């Protein structure tokens, strides 16, 4: 029963992600949509592995967590378990479930380690080639003629722009762009995007995973735009994004977050800044938050529930 429920929940998450990638209401409430995306991702991972483990550990009749403990005890005691515990289908399901769980955790840890290493190297490089500018306090400036603006998140976060950006943008546009980058740093959007980047490494052939990562990336930029326009004119931020697009912005280094992206997503953000749509009704927002909470809590409960 638990295995079937977890399997259905995993399929529901896949179907929900497929529909959610084209949901335009998310642009009206990016933070709420990001939370729902996170709930879908975590629930899918736990439900997929849980469905396999639940079936594999059914003979122990203790649920997933209790069944894993019972299996470890029986294996350490010489392989004596309840009838059917070591049948081929149950053994294969156990191997598949543990392997999938190891892959998901492994790619997340690996992606995090590689990102931290890339950021450390980039900070070391910035210490050698970047400079401070009294006109933009707290920002590191690269002497490069191209347009570049990005942040290096972390405990020692930095916002970096190029000399070409200083020449390209007006003071108001520059302030708007820096507010956008500061939003990335303060809200730790890099941590939001990391699990989706890791999942893409684990399932590079999945179109749904690629679309999900792109959707979350766009929502993160929109969330940063929303925070930035508390301190600046939305039109100034929109013109800054357009200037970057026409100037051919330099790609952001690995492990950092930039202000711009593909031309199509930049135009969506500009349109949203220039002609903002009304906020979502409170009932819709409450429904989305309730669904996120239900997804986050349901799977751990099913892991703990005895068969």
UniProtKB/TrEMBL annotation:
<protein>
    <submittedName>
        <fullName>Zn-dependent protease with chaperone function</fullName>
    </submittedName>
</protein>
<dbReference type="GO" id="GO:0006508">
    <property type="term" value="P:proteolysis"/>
</dbReference>
<dbReference type="GO" id="GO:0004222">
    <property type="term" value="F:metalloendopeptidase activity"/>
</dbReference>
<comment type="similarity">
    <text>Belongs to the peptidase M48 family.</text>
</comment>
<feature type="domain" description="Peptidase M48">
    <location>
        <begin position="118"/>
        <end position="195"/>
    </location>
</feature>
<keyword id="KW-0812">Transmembrane</keyword>
<keyword id="KW-0645">Protease</keyword>
<keyword id="KW-1133">Transmembrane helix</keyword>
<dbReference type="Pfam" id="PF01435">
    <property type="entry name" value="Peptidase_M48"/>
</dbReference>
<feature type="transmembrane region" description="Helical">
    <location>
        <begin position="92"/>
        <end position="113"/>
    </location>
</feature>
<feature type="transmembrane region" description="Helical">
    <location>
        <begin position="283"/>
        <end position="305"/>
    </location>
</feature>
<keyword id="KW-0862">Zinc</keyword>
<keyword id="KW-0479">Metal-binding</keyword>
<feature type="transmembrane region" description="Helical">
    <location>
        <begin position="63"/>
        <end position="80"/>
    </location>
</feature>
<keyword id="KW-0482">Metalloprotease</keyword>
<dbReference type="InterPro" id="IPR052173">
    <property type="entry name" value="Beta-lactam_resp_regulator"/>
</dbReference>
<keyword id="KW-0472">Membrane</keyword>
<dbReference type="GO" id="GO:0046872">
    <property type="term" value="F:metal ion binding"/>
</dbReference>
<dbReference type="InterPro" id="IPR001915">
    <property type="entry name" value="Peptidase_M48"/>
</dbReference>
<keyword id="KW-0378">Hydrolase</keyword>
<feature type="transmembrane region" description="Helical">
    <location>
        <begin position="35"/>
        <end position="56"/>
    </location>
</feature>
């Amino acid at each position: 029963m638990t295995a079937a429920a977890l399997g259905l929940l995993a399929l529901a998450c896949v179907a929900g992600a497929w529909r959610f990638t084209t949901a335009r209401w998310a642009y009206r409430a990016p933070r709420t949509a990001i939370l729902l995306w996170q709930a879908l991702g975590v629930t899918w991972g736990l439900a997929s592995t849980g469905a396999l483990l639940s079936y594999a550990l059914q003979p122990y009749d203790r649920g997933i967590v209790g069944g894993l403990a019972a299996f470890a005890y029986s294996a350490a005691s010489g392989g004596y378990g309840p009838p059917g515990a070591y049948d081929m289908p149950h053994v294969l399901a156990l191997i598949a479930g543990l392997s999938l769980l190891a892959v998901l955790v492994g790619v997340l840890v690996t992606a995090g380690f590689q990102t931290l290493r890339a950021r450390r190297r980039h900070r070391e490089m910035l210490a050698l080639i970047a400079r401070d500018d009294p006109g933009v306090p707290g920002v590191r400036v690269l002497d490069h003629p191209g347009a570049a603006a990005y942040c290096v998140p972390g405990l020692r976060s930095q916002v970096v722009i190029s000399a070409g950006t200083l020449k390209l943008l007006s003071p108001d546009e520059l302030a708007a762009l820096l507010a956008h980058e500061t939003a990335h740093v303060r809200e730790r959007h890099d941590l939001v995007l990391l699990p989706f980047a890791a999942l893409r490494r684990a399932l590079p052939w999945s179109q749904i995973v690629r679309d999900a990562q792109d959707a979350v990336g766009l929502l993160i930029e929109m969330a940063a735009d929303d925070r930035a326009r508390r301190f600046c004119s939305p039109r100034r931020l929109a013109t800054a994004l357009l200037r970057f697009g026409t100037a051919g912005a330099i790609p952001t280094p690995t492990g950092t977050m930039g202000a711009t992206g593909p031309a199509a997503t930049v135009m969506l953000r500009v349109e949203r800044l220039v002609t903002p749509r009304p906020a979502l009704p409170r009932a819709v927002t409450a429904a989305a938050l309730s669904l996120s909470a239900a997804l986050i809590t349901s799977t751990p409960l099913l892991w703990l529930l005895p068969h």
